[in-house]
Amino acid sequence: MKKVVVGLSGGVDSSVAAYLLKEQGYDVIGLFMKNWHDDSVTISEECPWLEDSNDALIVAEKLGIPFQTVDLSVEYKEKIVDYMFREYEMGRTPNPDVLCNREIKFDVFLKIALQLGADYVATGHYCRKGTIKNDSGSETYQLVAGKDKNKDQSYFLCQLSQEQLSKTLFPIGELTKPEVRQIASKMNLITADKKDSQGLCFIGKVRLPEFLQQQLKPKKGKIIEIAPSVSKYQTMVPEFANKESELEYYAKKPEYNIKDGTVVGEHEGAHYFTKGQRKGLNVGGTKEPLFVIETDVEENIIYTGQGKSHPGLYRRTLFVQESEIHWVRPDLSLKEDESLKVKARIRYRQELQNATLYKIESGLYVDFGEKQSAITEGQFVAWYQGDELIGSGVIS
């Protein structure tokens, strides 16, 4: 009998994942990961990990499976929290959920599961795994979007490797959320009606400003409003010598200085803000809401523009450095000067967009069919063929 360790998070999805695996005849162990100790920045009524670990324990007892808790808070702080502080400090916006899957659930957690003698780990993610049998007898694993398009979580798993996928099961990938809740109700699982968790992976709801202020001290600076006419694409488009110089031009970040706009307010630190952000600026009296279009952490300035359609928010092309390119399917990776038409997204739940990948010596351009709003350094771009996520990278 194959042994599977399920990451029981105390939510309905992982509860049903454990139930389905047991039904399928696996020897199932439930493991709860405790990744967070600092309750000073969590929203206090929801002491997330205590309540969640209790719920996970009750589910394990109900299903008649062994259960234990592992404390991964040291690894979590090192691999996720410290990384987040570093990225924000540099004016980038990290994605802790993608990192948490790559570094914690499918690395540290996977190693613990294998030490327990498991053949696989399983999670309650809404995605699917495909297997291609190769002529050589080896297998290639596919990361496929979940059947429930509203809940598809393949984007959060965009950094997984072939080795990680070979040891992973996604039991609820073929189900929709309502079907999962229905199974939980039928089995009288305590998590059946539990709300989905919000906020950072495994921390629960965190007040991000307070969280960041633990390490990144407030520093007053100016908020500048940039008129739409100052956008970099208002100038004459130059003649391009080749495709690479065209892509380089369209991928270039806009550069503003304080003289380009009007001072409209003050902020507590440019490193607390991210592109596309609207909340927290506390500037009134504008015809349309202000959005952050660029931050400058060196000079501690935030550049803003009025309205969702401000040209400063939009860019057609982004770049991923060579060291940040990750192919879930290495057999499909591009060689220098090759290109590939794909569908891509730059954030979770974004509709897939038409794009073309262009590989150059120093990295990879992702050129979209239409300009994208708030392309943000530090976030992940993921690219797909059909329903299959084949690669990803960190936006630079």
Automatic annotation (TrEMBL):
It is found in: Cytoplasm. Its main location: cytoplasm. Pfam families: tRNA_Me_trans, tRNA_Me_trans_C, tRNA_Me_trans_M. Its EC number is 2.8.1.13. The active site is at C100 (nucleophile), C201 (cysteine persulfide intermediate). Residues 95-97 are annotated as: Interaction with target base in tRNA. It comes from the Bacteria. It catalyses: S-sulfanyl-L-cysteinyl-[protein] + uridine(34) in tRNA + AH2 + ATP = 2-thiouridine(34) in tRNA + L-cysteinyl-[protein] + A + AMP + diphosphate + H(+). Residues 323-395 form the tRNA-specific 2-thiouridylase MnmA-like C-terminal domain. Residues 257-305 form the tRNA-specific 2-thiouridylase MnmA-like central domain. ATP binds at G7, L8, S9, G10, G11, V12, D13, S14, M33, G124. The record marks H125, Q379 as: Interaction with tRNA. Residues 151-153, 347-348 are annotated as: Interaction with tRNA. The keyword tRNA processing applies. GO terms for molecular function: tRNA-uridine 2-sulfurtransferase activity. Keywords: ATP-binding, Cytoplasm, Disulfide bond, Nucleotide-binding, RNA-binding, Transferase, tRNA processing, tRNA-binding. SUPFAM superfamilies: Adenine nucleotide alpha hydrolases-like (SSF52402). Catalyzes the 2-thiolation of uridine at the wobble position (U34) of tRNA, leading to the formation of s(2)U34. NCBIfam families: PRK00143.1, trmU. Belongs to the MnmA/TRMU family. This is tRNA-specific 2-thiouridylase MnmA.
